[in-house]
Amino acid sequence: MVNFDKLFRLMGCDREEIWSDTLLLLADSYGFSQLFYSINLNKQAPLTSASTYSNYAPIWLKMYEDSFWNIDPIVKHCKHSNMPLIWEEKTFKSRQEMQMYKTAQVYGLHKGIAFPMHGAHAEFAILNLVMNDKAKTPSQQELDEIISDWALIRDYVFESSKKFTILQSHEQSEKALLTKREIEFLQLATEGKSSWDMSVICNCTEATVNFHFANIRKKLKVKTRQQAIVKAMQLGITFLDGH
Questions:
Q1: What is the pLDDT of residue 121?
Q2: Does domain 4-173 have CATH number 3.30.450.80?
């Protein structure tokens, strides 16, 4: 039976790491040893661009993203269906798919249940729950109950995760707004260079430097150069130490 207290806790999480930990604990309470959840705000975008939460082995995640995501029959099913998929060895049919499955087994991925999610605004998500291969195989009745519970739980997972995905998408958009030239000026600002210094280094006028900084402040929604540097670093833009 679904524990709604846990679902409400999931919906109420305001920090991404607490949300992912809550989801993993929820999966564990049903006997799932591993979990993979990915959500993309655009169904047409590749899975590698999605926001991903998982306790898979990092080496397998990297291998999967590099070589296997575009041939995965689980992904193919989820893209074109709303129905859960109970997957196991026979799900993987082609030689490439079997190669993927044999490699996945090394990392404890033998069988599980995948739940697709399709949002009203072209969002697409996959929740893949991996059964503990060493645990007793659930009976058909137990399996039916698990699928019934998670058909509801996945909706809470989907809705509660979107706030983090939208935030990440917004930050990535802000970061992409800055041009290479603007990032170069920010780098010089971290080194304590004045507008005049920058104009000499970059062979331009001070007015040009100030024009670029006005654009940077507008794009990042800040008032000062120092605030722009801090905001850029928060968005993942790295600067070399000029000293």
A1: 82
A2: yes
According to DSSP, residue 82 is labeled: S
Residue-wise burial string across 89-119, b where 16 or more C-beta atoms lie within 10 A, e elsewhere:
eebbeeeebeebbeebeebbbbebbbbbbee
Q: What is the pLDDT of residues 233-243, one digit of tens each?
A: 877 777 765 44
Q: Report which residue type is found at 126.
A: I
Write down the pTM of the prediction.
0.69
Q: Evaluate whether 97 touches 87 at the Cβ level (below 8 Å).
A: no
**CATH number for region 178-234:** 1.10.10.10
- CB under 8 Å to 68, separation ≥6 — which residues? 100, 103
How far apart, in whole angstroms, are the C-alpha atoms of residue 217 and residue 8? 39
Q: Name the residue ranges covered by the structural domains of the chain.
A: 4-173, 178-234
